[in-house]
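[C-ALPHA CELLS]
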Amino acid sequence: WACLIAKKSEVFVCFLKVKSLAERETGCNIKCLRFNEEKEYFSDQFSSYLQKGGFRREFLCRYTPEQNGVAEWKNQTIEEVARAILEEKHMPKFYWAEAVLTAVYLQNRTFANGGVSTHKLYFGKNPNLAHLRVFGIIGYVQGPKDKRRKLEAKSENCILVSYSDEQKGYKCYNPRTKHAQVRCDVVFDESVSWYIFDMARGKNEPPRMRSN
C-alpha cells in the first residue's frame, strides 16, 4: 500500500487504515512493526495504541538503513518507477503523488519473487493486466448526454493519472478544468502527450496537445 499524507502527524491514522484493510483481507493479525527513529512513530497516541494492542516494536539503529534493506529497496524502486513514468510523457513533477500510486499499483502486478506477482502471493490468483495503460496518456472521456448541449463536444480530453481501488475504472484528470473523475468509458491515445518539454528553458510548457 501507499498512503499519501499532508503532514507526518497523519502517520498513525494511515497505519490504522492499512492495518484494518490488511487484517480483514488476509485473516491474519499484524504482530510486529519496524520503524526508523522519526519522531512521528514515538507520539503518545501511537505508542499507547501499540502497547495496549501487544504489538512488538523494532527500531533501526541510527544511520543504518541497511537494517531494513527490503523496505529501503522497495522505496527506492517506487521512486525510480515514478520518475520514469513521469519522464515518459513529460509530466510535470506536481503529478508525483499520482505517479507514486501508479508505481505501487504496477509493481504489485509485476512478476517478481521467482516469477510470481505480489498480487498472486497476496490474493492467491494472477492479476488481470488487460486494463493497464501508459501513465500520462491522453484519454477521451465521453460526457453524459443529459448534460450536453447541442453542438457541444461529445468527449472531454483528460490525462490518465492512476487507477481506482474502489471503482472499476481509470482516474482521469483535466488540467484545464482541474477536475478529476473515475470513468471506464475512455478511449486512449498513447501516441500523443498533453505536455511537451522545452529543452531551451528546461521545463514543461503550458498544457497543449502534441504528437510524439
